[in-house]
Amino acid sequence: MSFYDEFLQYSDADMEAVFQHTTSADIERIIGKDRLTPKDFLALLSPKAEEHLEWMAQKANELTVQNFGRVILLYTPMYLSDYCTNKCTYCGFNVTNTFTRKQLTMEEVEKEAQTVAASGIQHILILTGEAPAIAGVPYMKECVGILKRYFSSIAIEVYAMEEEEYAELMEAGVESMTMYQETYNPLLYDRLHLKGPKKDYRYRLDAPERACRAGMRGVNIGALLGLDDWRRDGFFTGLHANYLQNKYPGVEVSISLPRIRPTMGNCETGNSVNDKSIVQFMTAFRLFMPRAGMPLSTRENAEFRNHAIKLGITKMSAGVQTAVGGHIDSQENSGQFAVSDTRNVKEMSDAILQLGYQPVFKDWQAI
Ligand code: SF4
């Protein structure tokens, strides 16, 4: 049994019909409940629920403060390598894009680490494309060996791996992982992933569970919003997170809500997602899973991120460069996507304080 079995139970559900039958009275009753079912969550993603966003936002704020306090954990991504064997139509690093690829040497990893650590950041997220022959587990372990001298927490956002590989990276000092399914729609997934190992939908879908089985402390999942209908992908993201939290109660489960951003070779999906939709997803998810984490990246602009702090967000990135080596040379090469909120760590932290929240640089340390 894996999440795939649960996914199959809902994959043919007529969500449009559910949405059409959802009434204001249903939404009001659901907002008042202490514990929501997947069906309730789906109702909160309906067009009808848009009329109740203000109330959903208030409840989301209450639940977040109850479970997390008024704190926002700050982290920064570090791109180690942009070599990739996949052809994902929406990503600047895809194998057919021609630019000079780069992978950090150990000396460069150390320099990047020193630069990021000097900003006060203690939590680092390392990223690579999918090129295991170049940036595989041995390379990542070597990088982690350097990074753990500078950071209290190291997370990975890399390709889908075997359980033993996750265990090996944890042994080296990694404590959590992010894996975006991109879209839960298998047919669309197939159309967007033209070539490479990432084409295997099911292998990617089960990766977060393999990481949980390996004993990873934190697992973060998500869909790239704007690829498919956001209500559908939002529902399956929540369902997946709920499955992981119920089955692995010791794992800190979180979801991200990344919205598609411009890249080289822009991908037109025809499924736009606006600010109001993201707010609806964010607040609906908070009501469904009060204890789950919710990071928000710099894909979103400063104004939106400030607003989102009170809607359920628990972590934020700051001082972000999406190019390999970008912290030591921002002219180095092309980034994975365009950053929208360009505030540095000090500016982000000041903004959080001004909003009545506390910026936190370290909430966990491996011993
Ligand atoms: S999304 Fe990831 S796997 Fe796909 S092309 Fe970009 S870096 Fe490679």
What does this structure look like?
- It is a single chain.
- The chain is of the alpha/beta class and 367 residues long.
- It has one domain: Aldolase class I (TIM Barrel, Alpha-Beta Barrel).
- The protein contains 15 helices and nine strands.
- Strands 1, 2, 3, 4, 5, 6, 7, 8 and 9 form a nine-stranded parallel beta sheet that branches.
- Helix 6 links the parallel strand 1 and strand 2.
- The protein is globular, with a radius of gyration of 20 Å.
- The chain starts with a helix and ends in a 7-residue tail after the last strand.
- The model has no long low-confidence stretch (mean pLDDT 94).
- The site of iron/sulfur cluster has 9 residues, from loops.
Characterize this entry briefly.
The protein has 367 residues and is of the alpha/beta class. The protein is built from 15 helices and 9 strands.
Q: What keyword list fits this structure?
A:
single chain, TIM Barrel, 9-stranded parallel sheet, 9 strands, globular, binds iron/sulfur cluster, iron, Aldolase_TIM, S-adenosyl-L-methionine, Thiazole biosynthesis protein ThiH, metal-binding
